[in-house]
Design brief:
It is built from two helices and 40 strands. It is mainly beta and 503 residues long. The chain has five domains: 7-85, Immunoglobulins (Immunoglobulin-like, Sandwich), CATH 2.60.40.10; 90-191, Immunoglobulin-like (Sandwich); 195-275, Immunoglobulins (Immunoglobulin-like, Sandwich); 278-351, Immunoglobulins (Immunoglobulin-like, Sandwich); 355-437, Sandwich (Immunoglobulin-like), CATH 2.60.40.10. Strands 19, 21, 22, 23, 24 and 26 form a six-stranded mixed sheet that branches. The termini are far apart.
Length: 503
């Protein structure tokens, strides 16, 4: 007969220690006897099937064998593959070295698994947080529960501080294994790692508000274990980090971060912001045509925007100063921290400008004459004349006008007189040409003109007389045409005088 006609169901069995178990053995052959050979619960019968069962399976060395005896005295058997397992009583992690870990130094962690069987089915997995860092399997073949351990080598870095290290013991019992979970996980081992300071966050630049911001309010994060000490320096001097800063303390700050394992440094540029403030005079002089920039800029960070008001109305800030810009102004400087107000009086200084006047003047010999010169400007200009001094020439000042008065002008007074207007802004020049006239020559010239006019009038009268006479003569001598009265003679024939002398 080929093979042993026995069927064991299930063919392999995985049972937790102390649980009930049962196995069926059957055959379709003609048998005299079928049964189970077992340390406990052995049974047999005439067939065709027999069941072995037990309430608590607690024999780690148990061997089960199903057999049949055929009628021709043939006997065969099949051994049941059975795995009795037990999950660990305890799974725990401990360090082999006392004290905290130190960054960069290798340490060993130990995972102890107590009373697990079968050990050859055991897999141990190490985790740091949720990350798998190591696995272990065991080559022992013991069927009974044993105590085993798994070691993990760790070279910590700063990020390991506070990390949870756990190990998980798992019995890998295959597809015939139980549906329930066979894993046991240790409580976490929380790593304490000492490491030198490291800077986690620090801005390169930061702006704070005056009297409100201090260095301990900077969004600054330094890490280290033991917790590092942070000291701030400004201009090389250690400062109180909790003391509010003022506008004079803007600048570069250096932090020193240290513990017993090392130190590091970093720098940050601090800008202390504050509201607008005027430190300006209330009166300024500016020059005409200069850029219309405010002589005194307000302080403030961020830089304030300025609005100009004159006579109660907001105006555009002048681009270039003109003489008409002199006056009183209200200035308002504004930034995100507030507004400042300042009253300002501006005087626009400009070079002298001559008032309208003649550049030529004529005078009769012996007469008195006045040559005037006046100019306006800011400051009020000084008026100067250049002329040849003489007893009969006087320099007369009237308000902003300075005149030259000549008494009894002579030919020596003819010429060019120069007037200068001078102030701190500029200098201008004006010239007046004085010409002398003679009354005698003027009378002679006038008489000649009257003679010419008289002769012309006389000629015109003579021509009128001649024309009048000619007209009268034409009335006495000439050609005539006569027309008779048709009513009297009935004739239509005209009479025409011919040339000739009338009787």
């Amino acid at each position: 007969m080929a093979g042993c006609p026995l069927v064991v169901t299930p063919a392999e069995m995985v049972v937790r220690f102390g649980d009930p178990a049962s196995v069926n053995c059957s055959t379709d052959a003609d048998v005299q006897q079928i049964g189970w050979e077992a340390p406990v619960g052995a049974t047999s019968g005439p067939g065709p099937a027999v069941i072995w069962k037990i309430e608590k399976l607690e024999d780690w060395q148990i061997t089960l064998l199903c057999f049949i005896n055929l009628k021709d005295n043939y006997q065969c058997s099949k051994k049941l593959t059975i795995t009795l397992y037990k999950t660990p009583d305890i799974v725990s992690v401990s360090a082999l070295n006392d004290g905290p870990m130190v960054e960069g130094t290798e340490y060993h962690l130990n995972c102890s698994i107590v009373n697990v069987a079968p050990v050859q089915k055991l897999k141990v997995t190490w985790y740091r947080g949720n990350e798998t860092v190591h696995t272990d399997v065991f080559k022992e073949t013991s069927k009974v529960p044993v105590i085993v351990s798994s070691a993990l080598r760790v070279t910590p870095v700063g990020d390991y501080n506070g990390a949870h290290f756990t190990c998980k013991a798992e019995l890998q019992l295959g597809q015939n294994g139980p549906q329930t979970d066979t894993t046991v996980t240790s409580s976490p081992y929380i790593a304490v790692v000492h490491y030198k300071p490291v800077l986690k966050a620090c801005p390169a630049r930061y702006a704070g508000v005056e009297h409100e911001f201090s260095m301990d309010k900077l969004p600054f994060l330094a890490d280290g274990n033991p917790p590092p000490i942070v000291e701030w320096y400004f201009d090389g001097y250690l400062i109180n980090a909790s003391e509010p800063l003022t506008r004079t303390q803007s600048g570069n700050y250096t932090a020193e971060i240290y513990n017993n394992l090392g130190r590091s440094t970093t720098s940050v540029v601090i800008t202390i912001e504050y509201g607008p403030l005027f430190h300006c005079e209330h009166h300024y002089n500016v020059k005409e045509n200069e850029n219309g920039q405010l002589p005194c800029e307000p302080e403030g960070i961020p830089k304030p925007t300025i609005t100009w008001h004159k006579d109660g109305n907001e105006i555009e800030s002048p681009q270039r100063w003109t003489k008409h810009d002199s006056g009183s102004y209200s200035l308002f400087a504004t930034n995100k921290h507030g507004t400042a107000h300042h009253l300002l009086r501006l005087e626009v200084l400009y070079a002298p400008v001559f008032k309208e006047g003649t550049s030529k003047k004529e005078v009769y010999l012996g007469e008195n004459v006045t040559i005037d010169c006046s100019a306006e400007g800011n400051p009020v200009p000084e008026i100067l004349w250049t002329f040849s001094s003489a007893v009969n020439v006087k320099n007369i000042t009237r308000r902003r006008q300075k005149n030259i008065h000549i008494i009894g002008a002579t030919s020596t007074h003819a010429g060019v007189y120069s007037c200068y207007g001078i102030n701190e802004v500029g200098r201008v020049t004006k010239s007046v040409t004085l010409t002398m006239k003679d009354k005698t020559s003027e009378v002679s010239s006038t008489a000649k003109w009257w003679l010419i006019i008289f002769i012309a009038i006389l000629i015109i009268l003579i021509l009128i007389l001649i024309l009048t006479c000619v007209h009268k003569q034409c009335k006495k001598h000439g050609q005539y045409s006569f027309v008779t009265d048709k009513a009297n003679d009935g004739s239509d024939i005209p009479m025409t005088q011919s040339n000739g002398v009338h009787a």
